[in-house]
Write a structure and sequence with these properties.
The two termini are about 40 Å apart. The strands form six sheets. Strands 2-1-3-4-5 form a five-stranded mixed β-sheet, with helices on both faces. A three-stranded mixed β-sheet has the order 10-12-11, with helices on one face. Helix content is about 45%, strand content about 20%. It is flat and about 85 Å long. By secondary structure, it is α/β, with parallel strands linked by helices. It has four domains: about 130 residues, Resolvase, N-terminal catalytic domain (Rossmann fold, 3-Layer(aba) Sandwich); about 150 residues, Alpha-Beta Complex (Hect, E3 ligase catalytic domain fold), CATH 3.90.1750; about 110 residues, no CATH class; about 60 residues.
Length: about 500
């Protein structure tokens, strides 16, 4: 079979200063001197990764032995990642495919061409990483100076525009009605005999909502830990110092009036709410709501509180994390009774009795029912329609395009920082922060989509696990449920299953 020449072209967004796909192809045709070729075109896709339909088609054609040479207008049209590019070069070498960049005059049929190509891809990634570092440096520089770094205001405050050091930013201002509730919460929790449950039940009965929802224990724990509420004085300064926190503000700034911002440490990987070591504390421009004595009393009580254990590993049922109360939507917890049997209890009912719950439902009975439904689901769906290729998901394509546009805008803004005056620099920093926050949200959305996506090899494992159910372990059962089921809603006498396919 005669192999073909392939021209690959990519354009992330239409801009006046970007070369069109058609122009790229015209440049590449010169390399072939009139020879025949096949076009592969990806419009609206980033070069940061290989999640591109036509690129994947090209790689598939290479694996089938159909391609002799790949020509691109410029190196970054095919990849901006060292890892992706090196993997592609290995594939090209394995199938004896030449690679040519028409404008950079790289030809991997020669040793010098291969060496120069690798050097250029290194510098392309270095440029990207430099931009990311400059954005990160700007974030931490502003954090250390006491600027608010985005997000919704803590309960008890609203945001107000101010100018700090000649820069437009925002400051927390007391919201009287909410602030009164915050002070009440600290007063209640300061009492030795008051628990999380006492407080959440109290506000549930009063119908008070926090951010439009009922107060739950994790939300309450976060509120009580947050130093944004404390009128920080030297006792607060010493408390954080003793826990290894990087206190940026001088001791003189702890005046007993202003609250603090606690930021994630640059090199710290621990949760700043649970472990203070290595994180960054800055005195903020807003006034705190509670005295240092009261805040520290609550904070010390929290250090001794072991009732809330975030991300606890499931041990009682392989349905954990999927099974919810059909009344309120809260998780059902599997509780072992004296006889040794386990039954499911609504955590909201356990928390503050604000839900009627789903009755006395034994965990084993629900597990047996769900297993039977999983067997039936696989039998009825020989080819699960939900198992599509992630790269073909229109939502994934759209998010990648949006991320690419954001990164290009960030790069443009950061490049403009050089020589910028104070007003312009302030505006650029603010826009970069906003764009970076948006980018992070979109990356999180991609992560959620990836977590809910099931790869072909995982299908095989799911089918195998179902057929060997009595022989596989607890974690393998959890894996199987996670890949097949989105949600289980339990009501007295009924179980509703939301499938992933």
């Amino acid at each position: 079979m005669k192999r073909i020449n392939a021209i690959y072209a990519r354009q992330s967004v239409d801009r006046a200063d970007s070369i069109s796909i058609e122009s790229q192809i015209e440049f590449c045709k010169y390399e072939l001197k009139g020879g025949a070729f096949r076009e592969y075109k990806d419009k609206g896709y980033s070069g940061k990764n290989t999640v591109r339909p036509q690129l994947q088609q090209l790689l598939e054609d290479i694996r089938r032995g159909e391609v002799e040479k790949v020509i691109v207008y410029k190196l970054d049209r095919i990849s901006r990642s060292i890892l992706d590019f090196s993997n592609m070069m290995e594939l090209f070498q394995q199938y004896q495919v030449e690679f040519v960049s028409s404008t950079e005059k790289f030809d991997t049929s020669t040793p010098m061409g291969r060496a120069m190509l690798n050097i250029c891809i290194v510098f392309a990634q270095l440029e990207r990483e430099t931009i990311q570092k400059r954005v990160s440096d700007a974030y931490y520089s502003r954090s250390q100076r006491g600027f608010r770094m985005g997000g919704k205001p803590p309960y008890g405050y609203r945001l107000e525009e101010i100018i700090m050091e000649g820069i437009h930013t925002k400051k927390l201002v007391e919201e009287p009605q909410e602030a009164a509730i915050v002070r009440e919460i600290f007063q209640m929790y300061e009492r030795p005999d008051t628990s999380y449950g006492d407080i959440t039940r109290y506000y549930a009965e009063k119908g008070v909502q926090f951010y439009g929802k009922e107060l739950i224990r994790p939300m309450l724990a976060q509120l009580l830990r947050n130093p944004v509420y404390v009128r920080a004085d030297m006792d607060v300064y010493r408390f954080f110092k003793s826990h290894g926190t990087n206190v940026v503000s001088s001791s003189e700034q702890f005046d007993g009036i202003h609250g603090c911002y606690l930021y994630q440490g640059r090199d710290s990987v621990t949760d700043k709410q649970q472990n203070l070591k290595g994180h960054m504390l800055v005195v903020a421009p807003h006034e705190g709501l509670v005295s240092s004595e009261q805040w520290l009393n609550c904070r010390i009580k929290l250090l001794q509180n072991k009732t809330i254990q975030a991300n606890r590993k499931a041990v009682n049922t392989w349905l954990a994390g999927k099974v919810k109360c059909g009344h309120c939507g809260y998780a059902l917890m599997s509780i072992k009774i004296q006889s040794g049997k386990q039954y499911l209890r609504c955590t909201k009912r356990l928390n503050n009795k604000a839900c009627p719950g789903c009755g006395k439902i034994y965990t084993e009975e629900v597990e047996n029912y769900v297993y039977g439904e999983m067997v039936r689901r696989l039998r009825d769906a020989q080819t699960p329609v939900g198992y599509t290729k992630l790269k073909e998901n229109p939502q994934v394509k759209k998010i990648y395009r949006e991320i690419e546009e954001i990164e290009e805008e960030i790069s443009m803004f950061v490049d403009s920082l050089t020589g910028a005056g104070e007003t312009l620099a302030a505006y650029i920093n603010q826009r970069v922060e906003e764009l970076d926050h948006t980018r992070q949200l979109k990356m999180e959305a991609l992560t959620v989509l990836a977590e809910n996506h099931v790869m072909p090899e995982q299908i095989e494992k799911v089918i195998s696990n179902i057929s060997l159910w009595d022989q596989i372990g607890f974690e393998e059962k959890r894996f199987t449920v996670d890949k097949m089921i989105t949600l289980l809603k339990v009501l007295p006498g009924s179980i509703q299953i939301q499938w992933k396919f």
